[in-house]
Amino acid sequence: MNSKRKRLSTRQCILALLSVGLVLTLSGCRHADRDKIVRKAIPHVPSNLHAVDHLPGNFKRVVVLPCHHEPEDELLVDYVDSVFRQELTKRRAFEPVFLSRTDLHRMIGKTQLTPQDKLPENFLARLLVSHPGVDGVMFLEIFGYRAYKPLSLGVRGKLVDLRSGDFIWAIDETFDAGNASVISAAEIFQQRDQVTTFSRHSHGSVLSSPRAFAKYVADATFGTLPIR
Prior knowledge:
Rossmann fold, 18% strand
């Protein structure tokens, strides 16, 4: 009887090991298939945008409003603001003048403005008074945020000439890491900027870390700004 139980136990162990091996093999196949698709994919380039060919020669200082997100999530907007400000500053397209949520609330009674909102009365004129010498204002909004795999983040933005009121740049783009072209572009960004020392399949990679992915999104977004 004991011998039969031992044989049964051994058989169950073998079956369990075979099952684990099958799962690992299938998982490996899925990763291999994904990598083949990504290698063939054309890296994502934002296309839902408007931009003039060149920034005006006298367009040098821009007030940048805090990122809008509905509903307002303090932790989310704080880290996205931080990441987007770093990447915009790196771009050196103009001198950014970052407006805090406290300052914005003092001006208009709100801590955030969406690029699609009707502007408060005399808002642009008040910006010129409170920040003399600025040439433009940038509105930013994030939407479609997904903090788990596949990561996703959408961005709407507008850059307005304060003198003429004309749009210099506008974008409305979703970056979804479930899309092979976005994966390809994000991995190229990671390799180029060395966002992390981890491998691309690790927990700290651009496809796993919401903060690293936000850096890629900000870089791709501001990469569409007009050149000087």
